[in-house]
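Side project, low priority. Logging it here so it doesn't get lost.
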Amino acid sequence: MSPLHNIFTANPPANEHEILLIEQTMAIHLPEEYKNVLKESNGFSLMNGVLIYGTEEIMERNETWEVKEYAKGYLAIGDDGGGMVFLMSLEKEACQVFVVDVGDMNPQHAILVSSHLNRWLQEGFLD
């Protein structure tokens, strides 16, 4: 079953060029797990307000949240629409998803949401 079966709205899949452009522009390597999600849907939202960023939002959101400064080594991949941001490590094989308050982007204060992004998506953002 698709890991995105619980979505409210979804974008068409991202292509390799869109993903590479983000990596080059942001001077990072996206986690493979997150790239796989983008290749299925280039961003999506749920009825409960959860938003997983696509290539069009990710750069702006990471700049807005000042992730590079306050959560160095992490990437904001989404938010809950209520002041909480979902983070993933910038390590290539990273799978874990953390949540942190936008007012305190320190990864040491983040809470583990799921040990595996795809499982979290398949389970409807429950863990």
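Brief comment: The chain has five helices and seven strands.
Revisit when time allows.
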